[in-house]
Amino acid sequence: MSTSKAPAKLETIRALLAKAEDPRTPESEAELARKRAFEMMAKYGVEQAMLNDANPASDAPTDRKIILDNPWAMERVRLINRIALALGCELIHLGRDGSGPARRVHIFGYASDLQRVELLYTSLLLQMNSGLAAQSVPPGQGVRAWRRSWLLGFISRVGDRIEEAERGAREEARGETTATGRSAALVLADRKAVVSRSYQQAYPRARKGGTTTMTGNGYGAGWMAGSRADIGGKRIGRTTAGSITA
């Protein structure tokens, strides 16, 4: 593997996603572009981990605090948490940002994985918001409850899709070794251990969140929208998703 290929691969991913997001692209072609971009994003994560094993300075573990604004701040927390965990990162919800409705999260991971989290979260948040805006709440349903259940369905499905792609990329790399002779499985396990250790040192008393409950009936519609979502993104940095600080 060569580090010079990484930027070119990211540009290819961005080009595929741009094609998928273009309303002039036929749906069959858009779906193929999304699928290919999704697969390439997962493979890119494994490749960066393998390269880092031979050159540790190329991709150091780090952390970022992010403010997630309203509307639906808690659902945004759930979305970025599913993405972060699928991509080998750890996230803790720190609660409200001051007295307002915005929420704060703290994410731990390697720099390349945090970049992937940002890319995916920014893109999926836009898709989630636009998808929800296009929905008509069925008669007789509580508007907020139905919309929240739609969001939970969307988040569940896209989270599953990301996890599936990550597992596929790891399985495909199972027989590969780094320049140091270590297997991909061992490299990825060690990275996970480093991230978990950093998280536990920062928050030794952190507990798992409770069970999510909902009262609306929009979960199935949101789940189906998540099946069609473009899993990837071409935007990074400060967006309507909130402020990102190192």
UniProtKB/TrEMBL annotation:
Domain of life of the organism encoding this protein: Bacteria
Domain DUF7168: from-to ranges: 77-181
Protein name: DUF2786 domain-containing protein
Record InterPro entries: DUF2786, DUF7168
All copies of domain DUF2786, residue ranges: 10-48
Gene source species: Streptomyces enissocaesilis
